[in-house]
Amino acid sequence: MIAEAGHYALVLALALALIQSFVPVMGARLRDPALMNVARSTALAQLLFVGASFVALVTLHVNSDFSVANVYENSHSMKPLIYKITGVWGNHEGSMLLWVSILALFGGLVAAFGNNLPLSLHAHVLAVQAWIASAFYLFILITSNPFLRIANPPIEGRDLNPVLQDIGLAVHPPMLYLGYVGFSISFSFAIAALLEGRIDAAWARWVRPWTLMAWIFLTLGIAMGSYWAYYELGWGGWWFWDPVENASLMPWLAGTALLHSALVMEKRNALKVWTILLSILTFSLSLLGTFLVRSGVITSVHAFANDPTRGVFILLILCLFIGGSLSLFAGRATSLKQGGLFAPISREGALVLNNLLLTVACAVVLFGTLYPLAMEVLADFKMSVGAPFYNLTFVPLFALLLLAVPFGPMLAWKRGDLLGVTQRLLAAGVAGLVVVAIIWAWTRGGSALAPLAIGLGVFVIAGPVTDMAERTGLFRLPFATTLHRARGLPRSAWGTAFAHAGLGVALIGIVCETTWNSEYIATMKPNDVAEVAGYELKLDGLLERQGPNYREMVAQFNVSSGGEALSLMTPSKRSFTTRGSSTTEAALLTRGASQLYISLGDVTTEGAIAVRIYHKPFVLLIWWGPVLMAFGGMLSLSDRRLRVGAPKPARAKQRLQPAE
Amino acid sequence: MTLWFVFALMTVAAIFAVLWPLGRGGRPDNQGSDVAVYKDQLAEIERDLAAGLIAAPEAEAARIEISCRLLAAAGSEPMPAPDSSLKWRRAASVLALVGLPLVAVAIYVPLGSPALRDFPLAQRQRGAGPGMAQSLENLVAQVQQHLEKNPTDGRGWNVLAPVLERLGRFDEAVRAYRNSLTYNGESPERRADLGEAITAAAGGVVTAEAKAEFERAHALSADDPKANYFLGLAAEQDGRKEDAANIWRALLAKAPADAPWRPLVQTSLARVGGGGVTLPALSDETIAATKEMNDGDRNAMIRGMVERLATRLRQNGDDVEGWLRLVRAYLVMGDRDKALGATTDARQAVAGDAERLRQLNEGLKNLGLDG
Q1: Contact residues on chain A for B10, CB-CB shorter than 8 A
Q2: Where are the alpha helices (DSSP H) in A407-554?
Q3: Does the structure show a pLDDT above 50 at A287?
Q4: Shortest Cα distance, chain B CAs vs residue A49, angstroms
Q5: Mean per-residue pLDDT over chain B, rounded
Q6: Taking CB atoms and an 8 Å limit, are A38 and B18 in contact across chains?
Q7: Strands A587-591 and A581-585
Q8: pLDDT for A659 beyond 50
Q9: Considering only residues 629 to 648 of chain A, which have any Cβ-Cβ distance to chain B shorter than 8 Å?
Q10: Which are the contacts of B316, defined by CB distance < 8 A and separation ≥ 6?
Q11: Which domains does chain B have, with CATH numbers?
């Protein structure tokens, strides 16, 4: 009954979404508040039903009800409870259900907390959400139904892909989806504004925090995914420029741009049309990401062509929403009122530069992701675009962006003083240069660019520090006053500083890891000693262990440094009989921000084992950076004040001329 | 019955969600407007100014900007004119009352299986569950589960292996026989069974790996009939028909008269032309046995054809198509070494003719061998 009730709940959610798609729009046209209010209650009811459906699927997985095809194909009765739950979204059907659940959650939140929005905007936003939801409910029910049954249920399931049996699955996909789907809110607001033909002042006030929230989740989701790949895949790599990763990076880049332009819009009433376009683009890229990952088009264009139902359906959704929204934009954008004006050198100007660089970077990634696909379709020629391409294109763009980051928050609104800001950033620049010199002298070797890049990272961190020191009067005023001032500063200012510094932290981590990592690959016998980056690792022995649904071979390493014993490291190889596959569980030893990394290869006939040992200096900074960014985002989100950007008053001489 | 009751309740809840706001009529809620936002912004500036976050001249400039917008917004504030369009509300109600259940049923009925109950694992393991016949597959799964936890239970492997073989799950059967050997110790029967499973997994071809098992079984017990039979088959498949005939003849000589496998060996012997042995009149059992042997027969026939093709090509190597057919045949039979050998021969044979060599390389690439 649980299975069928869950199935029916999903069907009801579709029916409600269909009503929510039309009735409120009708109401907005007729200015009938009752009809418009239908959006609110149906959105909440939809959340209830989709939620019930999702809970039903989780219950089925937990109970190992193999009469449900989805459970049979992806679960196993002996799997630990946590993986029974996470396994729900560890497969295509379940993950799509999670996708629509989160969509319904956001719809429900807008319905519940949107009281201070103009009623017709509210109705339109929820209607657009319902369009998206209807399309995806249909997609799930028709092509990826998780509630299909097996009349004669088998006694045991096929188990979840062992690589996914990891705590990472509990965190990474929900985070990522909260990010992807969160951008649907700004998309719905953009479409609603286009439908209404006007942008209310309340528009930006709403869009900014929702975008910020989606951005925080997406940032954490990507960072988590990267760390997961790092420790689970056994190669010690944390970013591969693979299409699935790019699929999440593109919405992040566009979303970061959107975040900044939404800020300008809320504070200064400027960049309205651009913000709308970015909202559309960001969510379109989220949809594109879903298409790339879910249609199987990445694995091979031909595999996609063999079973095209799903792919074609998502492609249709994609064309409908992206094409429809962009044509609506093209038709309506000119009728929208333009916002405030500003000088090229100003906070607004800096944010425009940020937007330009981010969108170009995003376009580069889009090109690198789609080009191989296009080549495969058109010329039947398989290729991959990897790190060298992005090093030549993406990296310089981002370096330019990072160089500009410290300037932005220090420029005044409307008209800024670049020279003044440069002078104020002198200290930060000097700090960066000193670090460059020190590292240059210290390392001699490695890439010549590495010290420069680290200098840039230090500059990006020192910039916000200078800014905050200036604002709080650190070193100028007594400490107590500084502290008082620091507390008085809006949390959003602190958020900006933390998020920007996070960029620098991540950059330093990336450069250190790629330039100075050392690796040791060999076959080792018990009591062999490997020396890596000043650590001695002695292989104590190999032993077999039985896990709940796997058997594992564990190697025990005694790690010492300079004769002093540090710790035991136990990398292992797990073999899962049900799927007949195995995973490597790398062992990590964290020392400060650096890590030792051991992963196991195959056992040779003489009882020796292939081992890969890496020393990765400052590798953790790569993930601390995004965490810092997300923390900054949360600080800013917790700041419930309105954002008003007070412009720098024009000087008397300028006041005679009309504003720019 | 309960299920339909639950469905009905859910449907009613969904309909209610649509009807409720329609019924409450057009009370205009306290909705946000541009004016409200700008007023909030003005208040915010005062607060920032008081907190010392912005300087007085900047606050003044901001105030002027926002006031301008406030005035503009107040001028163009759309008058909320809630015409309660009763006609449309009725239409929406009808949509909810009729359309919603119709859509839900129209989608659910073809997709759902309302007749199926839930089958949580716990309940099924208690044995309850009509319609849950303890099929062989389920029993196998249970034994496998048990062995997963107690992999050293040799008896379990012993029981499981032949069942798996009968179910056609040869690869698993091979693994089970190997485990049985590990935990139960050596015996000619187990070795021969393992060899048989390997042969079955290879589609009836006695591979080198299988042959090694039969040889070990033979070494343990020279009279083991299964080992002897398959060693003969191996000889036949290698083209040594004389050896095959000798092995099988010796086997028949020692066999008890009522051995159930006698007819099988006799047909095999007849196939390799083991002269001298006249076939006994075809009894019913023999016919049944030959049916069992169909796989082996077919294999033998294919082998023969392949051999003839190889001989012909050795005499006249110009035939690119023929070479490709030979390589493909070897690949299909799982004999990669021979396929590679034939590749080399073919290259040598057509080396003098660039066009043929190109055709050959292309064909080989299609077969998945290096181009």
Answers
A1: 5, 8-9, 12, 49
A2: 418-424, 426-443, 449-472, 479-488, 491-516
A3: yes
A4: 9
A5: 78
A6: yes
A7: unpaired
A8: no
A9: 641-642, 644-648
A10: none
A11: 140-185 (no CATH), 196-280 (1.25.40), 298-366 (1.25.40.10)
Give me the mean pLDDT over the A307-335 stretch.
Answer: 87
Identify the residue among A642, A643, A648, A654 best suited for mutation to test binding to B, counting B beta carbons within 10 A and taking the highest: A642
pLDDT class for A114, splitting at 50, 70, 90? Answer: confident
CB contact (8 A) between residue A115 and residue B38: no
Q: What is the tens place of the pLDDT at every residue in B222-274?
A: 888 888 888 888 888 888 888 888 888 888 888 887 778 888 888 888 877 75
End-to-end Cα spacing for chain A: 67
Q: Which residues of B touch A37 (CB under 8 A)?
A: 21, 24, 29
CA dihedral A92, A94, A99, A104 (to 10 degrees): 150
Q: A317-326, A397-406, B55-64, B68-77: lowest mean pLDDT where?
A: B68-77
Q: Which residues pair with A594 in a beta bridge?
A: A591
Name which of B113, B220, B265, B103 is nearest A2 in CA terms. Answer: B113
**Residue at token pair 């016949």:** B133
Contact A254, A282 (CB under 8 A): yes
Mean pLDDT of chain A: 87
Rounded percentage of chain A residues whose pLDDT exceeds 70: 95
Among B44, B112, B122, whose Cβ lies nearest the Cβ of A7? B112
Token match 């579709």: residue? A14
Size of chain A, expressed as the number of residues it contains: 660
Cβ A35–B92 below 8 Å, yes or no?
A: yes
β-strand pairing of A535-546 with A518-524: unpaired
ipTM of the prediction? 0.86
Q: Are strands A551-561 and A581-585 parallel, antiparallel or unpaired?
A: unpaired
Beta-carbon contacts of A330 under 8 Å, excluding residues fewer than 6 positions away, are: none
With CA atoms as reference, the chain A residue closest to B114 would be A4
Given an 8 Å threshold on Cβ–Cβ distance, is A2 in contact with B118? yes
Tens digits of per-residue pLDDT, A448-500?
788 888 899 999 999 999 888 888 887 788 888 888 888 888 888 899 999 99
CA A219, CA A636: separation in Å to the nearest integer? 15
Interface test mutation site (partner A, options B60, B108, B149, max chain A beta carbons within 10 A)? B108
| Extents of the domains making up chain A | 1-165, 197-421, 425-514+623-640, 518-616
Which residue reads 């992701």 in tokens?
A369
Note whether B53 contacts A40, CB cutoff 8 Å. no
CA distance A601 to A588: 16
Check residue A607 and give left, alpha or beta (phi > 0: left; psi -120 to 50: alpha). Answer: left
Please give the Cα distance from A322 to A330 (Å, whole number). 12
CB contact under 8 A, A34 and B25: yes
- Number of neighbouring beta carbons within 10 Å of residue A540: 13
If pLDDT is split at 50, 70 and 90, which confidence band does A223 have? very high
Please tell me the distance from the alpha carbon of residue A603 to that of residue B67, in angstroms, as a whole number. Answer: 76
Q: A560 and chain B: CB distance < 8 Å anywhere?
A: no
